[in-house]
């Protein structure tokens, strides 16, 4: 029997919109970095730390709020803990060097991409459209490897690559939140259908 990502469709998912908030936050950050590539790395480190903190706390809220509904809520919990930890480390170490910051961001993005791949495959088992989410998550993982290893390999500056990764993460989060929104609305739709058939 294939694993289902959702234990029941009788209860609506809680706080599904938090992933939309996370996605918008990451996209705005990515666009800002694209537009201000000459900003000091101290400014970027502060922005990254705040975004990871906000993302981590939102994911923790979502995970605990849906622990009885999602079979794979542990992925959100782990991703939230790691994001919060990275955000705290960056915030308490504002003078991180240009060589160190990409490692923090890269490993954080890598874990989020792994979680995205896991949930995309869970959506496949659930019978929902999953390819776009899966390909974007795989793209995020590839970019995170490049960020950690050597961003110059594809001729991009470190800042530009980081901005691209944040935009990609934002798109993945928003797409996944839309999937969750459909499942959030499903119990009410089923109740209405049952009433209409009776």
Automatic annotation (TrEMBL):
One of its GO terms (cellular component) is plasma membrane. It comes from the Bacteria. Keywords: Membrane, Transmembrane, Transmembrane helix. The chain crosses the membrane at residues 16-35, 41-61, 73-91, 103-121, 133-150, 156-178. InterPro entries: Acid_resist_chaperone_HdeD, DUF308_memb, MFS_trans_sf. This is Membrane protein.
């Amino acid at each position: 029997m294939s694993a289902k990502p959702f234990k029941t469709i009788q209860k609506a998912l809680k706080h599904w919109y938090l992933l939309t908030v996370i996605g918008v936050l990451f996209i705005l950050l990515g666009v800002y970095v694209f537009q201000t590539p000459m900003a000091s790395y101290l400014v970027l480190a502060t922005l990254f730390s705040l975004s990871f903190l906000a993302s981590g706390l939102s994911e923790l809220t979502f995970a605990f709020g849906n622990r009885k509904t999602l079979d794979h809520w542990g992925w959100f919990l782990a991703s939230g803990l790691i994001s919060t930890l990275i955000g705290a480390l960056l915030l308490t170490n504002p003078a991180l060097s240009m060589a160190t910051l990409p490692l923090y961001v890269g490993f954080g993005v890598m874990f989020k991409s792994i979680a995205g791949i896991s949930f995309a495959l869970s959506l496949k088992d659930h019978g929902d459209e999953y390819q776009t989410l899966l390909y974007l998550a795989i793209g995020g993982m590839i970019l995170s490897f490049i960020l950690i290893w050597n961003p110059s390999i594809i001729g991009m500056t470190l800042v530009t690559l980081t901005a691209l990764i944040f935009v990609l993460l934002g798109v993945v989060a928003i797409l996944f939140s839309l999937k969750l929104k459909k499942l959030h609305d499903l119990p009410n739709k089923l109740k209405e259908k049952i009433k209409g058939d009776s």
